[in-house]
Amino acid sequence: MIQVLAIQHVAFEDLGSLGDELALRGFDVRTVEACAPQLESLDLLAPDLVVVLGGPIGVYETDAYPFLTVEIARLRERLARRLPTLGICLGAQLMAAALGARVYPGARGKEIGWSALRPGNGAQACPAMADLLAPDVQVLHWHGDTFDLPTGAAHLAASEHYPNQAWSLGERILALQFHPEVTAANLERWYVGHTCELAAAGMDVTRLRAAGRKLAPALSAAARRFFHRWLDEAIPVKRSA
Description:
Layout: E1 3-8, H1 16-24, E2 28-33, E3 49-52, H2 67-80, E4 85-88, H3 90-98, E5 103-105, E6 111-115, E7 118-119, E8 139-143, E9 145-147, E10 154-158, E11 166-169, E12 173-176, H4 187-193, H5 195-200, H6 205-234
Parallel strand pairs: 1-2, 1-3, 3-4, 4-12
Antiparallel strand pairs: 5-9, 6-8, 7-10, 10-11, 11-12
Helix pairs in contact: 1-6, 2-3
């Protein structure tokens, strides 16, 4: 059975629609908290797929959050072997840092809300991205940090505010700054969990909620197709359902 390890930083930023696709394939999914003591003893080389999820902290805040140092070191070992790895938001930043790229606060401040992606100059390197680059799809952005592209990475997508929204290394390593996994049903947990961040950014939760209700269903449909195609490329096994 295919083994999947999801590394979570806050409980409400979970696998979302990706979890549905993993369950459909019959994959065995285990979730661990990044800040849990067992992270240091985990073998990140063993799972068939590692998914590194989002969170509200910065990659560079290792003094405040020492577990980040361990997490980056474990990811560096895995990425050096080009093992299937997917990073979302903070996860994408951690993967970039593990490969030696710079991660830093974005000059244009917080990018929170819904907007369409633009193709990167290497978008063809990941055919699955076409589902998220479709003109009728908007994705959820929720970050303040950004990163430089790792050496050798294909530039897959950009947004109006930040040029580096997605990158890949071959067919098995994929990093997404935005959130394709969110669902309309789960977003209310985000509004509560990130209330301080939203207030500090001057965000109108009512408007953000209305946008989510309107746009999340189309994203979920596109994300299901995207995850399906990417998993077929990264882990080419027969579906069990």
